[in-house]
Design brief:
single chain; 211 residues; alpha/beta; Rossmann fold; five-stranded parallel β-sheet; 8 helices; 5 strands
Length: 211
């Protein structure tokens, strides 16, 4: 395919998204494609500044509505400065989290009105939507154990409690069920090589639907 493709990685904490994203990017680049690897919140200088505000501090630092607005401020800058220009020149964009994370974290798990999130999606994303979304799934207890093992400064969401993360997992699975033409659930419990194989098969399986 010569046109740019937009692939997003989603899922709860500790599911191994970042590791598998690096593997997919390397594989795509080895195939001769220009690939932009990026992340949310962040991905552009302005959005990275907002990331510092959102991901650090106490669990109750921001209300879910405030988080939603911050996430979408960061997302708009990221779209304008990184994602759209890359897709316009035919590059592939592979992004660690995107709009589905706001639906799940601030919406279903946090309690922000889905109508607000839907309105922001419409106005901020416009036509910039993922072609493929991979949702990495793990039992919550396993994911949190992994996340705490790699603990760094950005632990604000990991500290929100078990019930929050159970709602989060259920929301991601519901998104995948509602949009099977875009989303694939990846069982993240296997070895790195096993999960990589599932990622590769899912990407090409979903892209063939749009071909």
């Amino acid at each position: 395919m010569s046109k740019g493709q937009f692939i997003t990685f989603e899922g709860g904490e500790g599911a191994g998204k970042s590791t598998q994203l690096k593997r997919l990017v390397e594989r795509l680049r080895n195939g001769g494609r220009e690939v932009v690897a990026t992340r949310e919140p962040g991905g552009s200088p302005g959005a990275e500044s907002i990331r510092e505000l959102v991901l650090k501090g106490n669990a109750d630092r921001w209300s879910p509505v405030t988080e939603t607005l911050l996430m979408y401020a960061a997302r708009r800058d990221h779209i304008e400065r990184v994602i759209r220009p890359a897709l316009a020149r035919g590059a592939w964009v592979v992004c660690d989290r995107f709009a589905d994370s706001t639906r799940a974290y601030q919406g279903a798990a946090g309690g922000t009105d889905p109508k607000l999130i839907s309105a922001l999606e419409s106005h901020i994303l416009e036509t910039t939507r993922p072609d493929v979304t991979l949702i990495f799934d793990l039992p919550v207890s396993v994911g949190l154990e992994r996340a705490h093992a790699r603990a760094g400064a950005e632990m604000r969401f990991e500290s929100k409690g078990l019930e929050f993360h159970e709602r989060l997992r259920a929301s991601f699975l519901a998104i995948a069920k509602a949009e099977p033409e875009r989303c694939a659930v990846i069982d993240a419990a296997g070895s790195l090589d096993e999960v990589e194989s599932k990622v590769w098969a899912a990407v090409w399986g979903l892209l063939s639907v749009h071909d």
